[in-house]
Each structure stands twice: as structure tokens, then as C-alpha cells.
Specification:
The chain is α/β, with parallel strands linked by helices. Among the domains are: 31-185; 412-450 and 470-482, no CATH class; 491-796, no CATH class. The chain has 20 helices and 37 strands. Strands 18, 21, 22, 23, 24 and 25 form a 6-stranded antiparallel β-sheet that branches. It has a 5-stranded antiparallel β-sheet with strand order 1-6-7-8-9, with no helix packed on it. The chain starts with a helix and ends with a helix.
């Protein structure tokens, strides 16, 4: 582009921006008898509403106030935190004066709510306050308030919603009436007009590079900034086709710069800081740079994100652990604040896409697009509340989150040392090039040069040139490098009691994936949960443990988050879970959604559960184990049984239970595998089984721990073991609750003592576990001590 062309482009663009600003502050015209619109910016603004009433608005960075003065007396005063008063429109309908006040929450959501005041000689009366609408906008036409806001579907970015909702509000006899909503699909021009000023998006490789560079300059993890940029705009500064709804914005300037559906957000990071700047050349220049300079837009987005990080200093958001800004997971609340401290960002109420809390969606994108095994925030620990003006707050100021902390691997530079975090990592000849070798987990590498990005917005990692100590060289993806020597991730899934531990497991394992079902068992006598864990695994559902006479509070809280379509109760109403708990669940989810699986005793309950697992089909194989709840023999088989839909049935030691016999006969079982030694299931039972099926096997060891390792060795290929769940071997509750998750991860459960790793387990692991698996410890430090955890890490390394 030549110099004169650039000058002409800039002249036209400045004219367009000036026109945009003029249009933006013009009163919204309708058929009301009279209308006056007052826009408010940063700092104090005073306007005359009527002959006798004045409004004083003071919009600050954190706190804002609005006062109405009549005859030098204050008749109305409100104070807000992280909410600005954006405008007041005075209307006269049928000789009655009204004031419509628009408020916007801080954050990229630009969440809007409005309040309607009746103004008369006696003062002002609030007659209506709307709900809060993300990225909404309001216009006044005739005797109606018209609200438009986006409706998102799964996978939508914030500038590209699938639908637009239009809501009409009428003012009738001094009351605001909500009319029906209209939902319409978003439409875009087939092509841009030839006379518009069209920007062209850089390649995704270039955007990847800019996002990485600017993040590193600001000491912010690029993985986070990239996920936010995708969440906001899909990594686009310009529309490829301008939506019709955007063209209706009063400040639409005829270009294809990405303007949000709220007519406020600008560009790749959807910056909205310009909204409250005073009119004039500085604001015009700021808007011009946001529109035409993608790097500047990204810089402003990062600047805003860092400001949100500092909200903890004012007590607006909590911190996590030591508040290390280089840990990706520690940005959870700052990411929330980037969008807004809104009730819609409460992850207990909005846990799953497409309506998930903003920070949850961003963190999920970090995992999916930067390929980092993010440790999800344990939302069951949250204690949210809503303050008077509709803002979200938390009672706890600092949350302790156990588990791996991920430092940005994209922050590595030439000369840095890092460690490979997976096995068989492809070593390539060039970024994304041919595979020339592989590296194993724990391999130490040296970064030998600058990164290169992918030409993709969904592959947000970068490539690094590396050299190993053995002299191998090549390129590897940043996702699989750790800047620290902690390349074995340690997860701690625990709670104060077994009930809270089951909640921790459910919250972790089904954090971003909503299950259709949940299985609930009794926590203090969890034998029914043993057989029920197979059903939970089949349904890809969590297994929660509750008290028998009341629904445990933490379990109820997690059920409210999960919102399953169906709840299975394990065991009878007298021996397991009471009718009171069942009634509460039916009241919460509906009678048809709650199904109790029970028998007269644990053996018959196991039979009924097995029927659900078999699902009226022929069952080739079953596992049979002891009905003694103190035995840990069946714990190791539960994940495998669940993963492969093999029912577990219970028997007495010296006599084959009638329910086992009936199931074998009803379902045509051909093979029975007994779990445990002869003290658990006697040879008498084996002899009886020999008369019923063609094949009877036993898997056992001399101790509960060796039985455990025998099961793993028989049913798991050691080359596939990349994760291990570790549970205390004397109490079965923690391991049972984790069985469906272990099945989901195709991973075994290893049993241990509290204070040390059993000798037979250590010896077996040293010979069998070769893949340096990540470790998932079930239960707190009272269940598995710190020393035992360290011992496991030393063994697998």
C-alpha cells in the first residue's frame, strides 16, 4: 500500500470513527412524545433531567455512584462496585415522565441491566429492574423497550452466537410488562460491500506469534491469553461477513472490524474500555488503534487481564495457593473477572457448555487447544454469594488447591532446561514436520532456539527446537514439556470424610462433561457401592456416597451442579439409604428420574445391579467375590469390571449364594472369575461353580496387596498404564468412589498402607510399572501420608 493510499485510508477511517461516535451518543428515536438520552463516561457528570431534577453520575474504576437531586435535596442515591451507569433516557408517555437507567457490569461480557423509574412531583419511584443480559443492548421504540442479546450454543465464540434473542417490554399504566421473546438465527452478508474499509485477518500462524510475544512481554502465560482471544472472537480482528445485527449498531462505521453484538467490544480481544472515555481526539485515536492494530488490541486485552489479576488486592476475587502468577491454574478468578464478576459465572450453577461460566470455558480451551492436562478448579469448595447490586463474590479469600500446578511451557527460551511429560513424544525434523524419533517421559532436553507457532487457531501450542543429553535434535510440541522436574503429575482427590472425597472425585472426573446419570451409595457401609461401581462405570457416571438417613450436604451441592437426568440409589430403604433421602432426591429431580436398585440383602442387591449391567442381554462372564465389607479383594477389579461391563456378584464364604446361581442360569454365564483367596471364597463355592459353568478361575495373592497386584498384572497391559489411582487398602470407600473414574481413564487402582508402601507392592511396581505414570491419590493425608506419596513418586520415576 503506497503512502498516499495510507493517508487517504486514515482520513476515511477517522471520518468513519467520528461519525460512529456522533451516532453512538445521539438519542434513540422513537414515537414517544419526548426523549432525551444522557450518556455517562469516566469521572463525574451532571445532567438536568427535568426543570427540578438533576442527576449526578460518578463512574470510577472500581466504585460508581448515582444521585438524583431535586430542589437541592438528594432524593435518590445508589453506590455500585464494578458496575457503571452507562446512560439514562428520559421518556414521556401519555403525559407521564419515566427515566430508563442502563447499567453495565465491568468485564468483556458488558452485561447490561436496566431500571425503569416513574418520575413525578413527589420524587422518583423504581417500578422495574430487569435481569442481567450478557452483551445485551437496549433501544426505545414507541411505547416499548426492546432488548437484544445473544444466545450461545456449544462451541460458539462470544462474537459469533448462533442466535439472537429479542425481548419487548411495554410500559402500561405505570407498570413494565414483559412480552414474549423472539429467537432468530444470526445472519451475515454474503459478501462485504465494495465501498467499505475492509481489514484482512493475519494468518493464524502470525496471530499465534503475536499472542505469544505479547504475553511473554507482559509475564502472562500465552496459553491463557490465546484461550481468551479464542473465546472472545475466534482469533479474528475482522469479520469475514458482517452480521446484520452488528450493522444495526448505532456506532457501526461501515468497516468489517469485529464489533460485538452489544455494539461495544472491539476486535480480537473485544476491548470495551473506550466506552467510558470522554469524547474527543484521544478517544477517537484509541478506538482507531483498537480497530486497525491487532497487536495493540492484544496488548490492551493483556493489560486488562493483569488489572483483573490485581482485583485480589481489593478483596474482589480470591487467590489460589501462593498466588504465583506463572501458574496457569492460578488465573482462574482473574479470567472470571475479565468477563465480569457475574452470577452467570458461578460454576456451581453454570458448569457445562454452552452456558458454562466463562472461566470454565477458557480453562477447558486451554486444555483442548494448548494440550495441557489442566487441573480443574475444585468448584465444590466454592462458597459464592451475591451482593446487593447483583455481583458475584466468595466468602473464602484464598483457596488451597491440591494437585499439579502447570507453569507455561510456551515461556521457555533458548538455553532453558525442560523435561518431557509423556511417553513416545514425537521428535520431528521441523515444526509439524516428519517424525524422526521419539522421546520418553522424564527425558531432559535443552531448548536450542526460538519457538514457532502453528497456522491454526485450535492448535495453540508452539514448537521448540531441542537437544537431548544423548545428542538427539529436532522439534517437539510445547504441550509436552515441563519447565520443572515435576514431570509426574500428582493429583489429590480428597475431602474431610469419605462423602466429601466422593464429591471431590466426581467434581474432578466429570468437571467439564455432564453425566446423564449419577449413582448413589451408602458411605458408612459401602458394600452395595462395590457392585454399583460397575453400573456407574457402564453409565459413565460418578458414584457418590451419602449418609443413610440424610442427603449429605456436600453431596447435594454436587448433585445440584451435575443436574443428572437419572439418579440410581443402591440398596434397600432399611439397610442402605432411607426413604427420606429418596424423597428428597425425587423432590429435586422428579419421581421418574430416581430409581432404587435393591434387594432384601446385599447379595440380592448385587443381583439386581448385575441385571442393570447385563441389560437383559446374555452375559458371558461375571466376577464373584466375598460379601464381607471389610475385604479389599474386589477393589482392584472394580475399575476393570466397570470398563468392560462385567457384573460383580457377592457370595458367602462357604456357600454359593442363590442369587449368583440364579444370575448364571438366567443370563447363560459361561465363565466365572473368583476374586480373592480361599478365606474369602472357599473351595466349596468353587466346586459348586464348576457344576454351573464351563470355566472357573481364581485371581488371588497371599495378602490383600498381592491380590491387588495379581489383578492388575492379569487385566492391564503395563505399556498402557499412564495413570495409577492409589488408595488406602484397609478402608474401601475411597477406592469404590474412584472406580468409575479409574474405569473412565482405563487405569488400575493400587492399594497401600497409610504410612508406607507395602513391601510386596513396591517390589511388584519396580518390576512391572515402567511408564512413569501420573498418580491420583484417593483420600487425604490421614489416609495416605506424605511419606507414602513421596515413596510412590520415587518408585514410578
Amino acid at each position: 500500500m503506497g503512502g498516499e493510499t495510507v493517508k487517504n485510508f486514515n482520513r476515511i477511517l477517522i471520518f468513519s470513527i467520528t461519525l460512529m461516535v456522533i451516532l453512538y451518543v445521539q438519542p434513540i428515536q422513537g414515537n414517544a412524545e419526548e426523549g432525551n438520552l444522557f450518556n455517562f463516561y469516566n469521572g463525574e457528570t451532571q445532567e438536568k433531567l427535568t426543570d427540578t431534577k438533576e442527576v449526578i453520575v460518578n463512574n470510577g474504576e472500581i466504585n460508581s455512584t448515582v444521585s438524583i437531586i431535586e430542589n437541592e435535596e438528594e432524593i435518590h442515591h445508589e453506590e455500585f462496585t464494578l458496575i457503571n451507569i452507562s446512560s439514562i433516557e428520559k421518556l414521556i408517555f401519555n403525559n407521564q415522565e419515566y427515566a430508563i437507567v442502563n447499567y453495565r457490569h465491568d468485564g468483556s461480557a458488558n452485561a447490561l441491566y436496566f431500571e425503569v423509574f416513574l418520575m413525578n412531583e413527589d420524587g422518583m419511584e423504581s417500578i422495574y429492574t430487569s435481569e442481567t443480559y450478557e452483551r445485551g443492548r437496549v433501544v426505545i421504540e414507541d411505547n416499548e423497550i426492546i432488548l437484544e442479546y445473544p444466545k450461545f450454543e456449544k462451541g460458539d465464540v462470544k462474537t459469533n452466537p448462533s442466535n439472537i434473542v429479542t425481548q419487548h417490554f411495554s410500559i402500561i399504566k405505570n407498570k413494565v410488562v414483559e412480552n414474549e421473546k423472539e429467537i432468530s438465527a444470526t445472519l451475515s452478508d454474503q459478501k462485504l460491500q465494495s465501498n467499505t474499509l475492509n481489514g484482512v485477518n493475519p494468518s493464524y500462524a502470525e496471530i499465534n506469534s503475536i499472542l505469544t510475544e505479547e504475553s511473554l512481554k507482559a509475564n502472562v502465560s500465552p496459553e491463557i491469553v490465546k484461550a481468551i482471544a479464542y473465546q472472545e472472537s475466534g482469533w479474528q480482528q475482522y469479520w469475514e461477513r458482517v452480521p446484520e445485527s452488528v450493522k444495526k449498531c448505532p456506532n457501526y462505521d461501515g468497516t468489517n472490524v469485529k464489533l460485538g453484538y452489544d455494539c461495544i467490544g472491539i476486535g480480537i480481544m473485544q476491548i470495551s474500555n473506550q466506552m467510558y472515555l470522554d469524547e474527543g481526539p484521544e478517544k477517537e485515536e484509541y478506538i482507531r488503534k483498537l480497530k486497525t492494530n491487532i497487536r495493540f488490541n492484544i496488548q490492551e486485552g493483556i493489560k486488562i487481564l493483569k488489572e483483573k489479576w490485581n482485583y485480589h488486592r481489593s478483596g474482589l476475587i480470591p487467590t489460589i495457593n501462593d498466588n504465583d502468577s506463572m501458574v496457569i491454574e492460578n488465573w482462574y478468578f482473574a479470567i472470571m473477572a475479565y468477563n465480569g464478576l457475574l452470577p452467570r459465572n458461578n460454576p456451581l450453577e453454570r458448569p457445562f457448555s454452552p452456558y458454562a461460566a466463562y472461566q470454565e470455558e477458557v480453562m477447558e480451551r486451554v486444555g483442548n487447544y494448548s494440550l495441557i492436562d489442566i487441573n480443574p478448579f475444585p468448584t465444590h469448595k466454592l462458597d459464592p454469594y451475591i451482593i446487593g447490586n447483583g455481583q458475584l463474590r466468595f466468602k473464602t479469600s484464598n483457596f488451597t488447591v491440591e494437585g499439579p500446578q502447570h507453569y507455561s511451557s510456551q515461556s521457555l527460551k533458548a538455553g532453558d532446561t525442560s523435561f518431557v511429560t509423556v511417553n513416545d513424544l514425537n521428535l520431528r525434523s521441523a515444526p509439524g514436520g516428519n517424525v524422526k524419533g521419539s522421546l520418553n517421559k522424564g527425558t531432559k532436553v535443552i531448548i536450542t532456539g526460538k519457538y514457532e507457532g502453528n497456522n491454526s487457531r485450535v492448535n495453540q501450542y508452539v514448537w521448540f527446537p531441542i537437544r537431548t543429553s544423548s545428542g538427539q535434535t529436532g522439534w517437539v510440541a510445547s504441550s509436552y514439556l515441563s519447565p520443572t522436574n515435576n514431570y509426574i503429575d500428582n493429583y489429590s482427590l480428597s475431602g474431610e470424610r469419605r462423602y466429601e472425597t466422593s464429591v471431590s472425585i466426581a467434581n474432578f472426573g466429570w468437571h467439564w462433561d455432564q453425566p446423564s446419570s449419577v449413582v448413589i451409595g451408602r458411605g458408612d457401609i459401602p458394600i452395595d457401592a462395590l457392585t454399583g461401581s460397575v453400573l456407574a462405570a457402564k453409565l459413565d457416571s460418578p458414584l457418590l456416597l451419602t449418609q443413610n438417613n440424610e442427603l449429605t450436604e456436600s453431596v447435594e451441592k454436587e448433585l445440584d451442579r451435575l443436574q443428572p437426568d437419572k439418579v440410581y440409589i443402591l440398596g434397600g430403604d432399611k439397610t442402605a439409604i432411607s426413604p427420606a433421602v429418596e424423597a428428597k432426591l425425587k423432590n429435586k429431580f422428579g419421581k421418574k428420574s430416581v430409581h432404587r436398585i435393591s434387594g432384601t440383602d446385599r447379595y440380592e442387591t448385587a443381583f439386581e445391579v448385575a441385571k442393570e449391567v447385563g441389560n437383559s442381554k446374555a452375559v458371558n462372564e461375571i466376577f464373584v467375590t466375598t460379601g464381607d465389607e471389610s475385604s479389599s479383594d474386589p477393589l482392584a477389579i472394580a475399575p476393570y469390571a466397570g470398563e468392560n461391563n462385567i457384573p460383580i456378584l457377592l457370595t458367602r464364604n462357604n456357600k454359593l449364594d442363590r442369587n449368583v446361581i440364579k444370575f448364571i442360569q438366567d443370563y447363560g454365564v459361561k465363565k466365572v472369575t473368583i476374586i480373592g483367596g480361599t478365606e474369602a471364597v472357599s473351595t466349596t463355592v468353587v466346586n459348586h461353580l464348576d457344576t454351573l459353568v464351563d470355566n472357573v478361575e481364581r485371581v488371588s495373592g497371599k495378602t490383600r496387596y498381592s491380590t491387588n497386584t495379581e489383578i492388575i498384572e492379569k487385566y492391564y497391559n503395563k505399556a498402557d498404564i499412564s495413570k495409577i489411582f492409589v488408595s488406602q487398602g484397609l478402608e474401601i470407600a475411597d477406592a469404590l468412589a474412584a472406580s468409575p473414574l479409574a474405569a473412565k481413564e482405563n487405569s488400575p487402582i493400587i492399594l497401600t498402607r497409610t504410612e508406607n508402601v507395602p513391601r510386596e507392592v513396591k517390589k511388584w511396581m519396580n518390576g512391572y510399572i515402567t511408564e512413569k505414570p501420573n498418580l491420583y491419590f484417593l483420600g487425604g493425608k490421614n489416609a495416605i501420608s506424605n511419606n507414602t506419596r513421596k515413596e510412590f513418586n520415587q518408585i514410578v520415576k
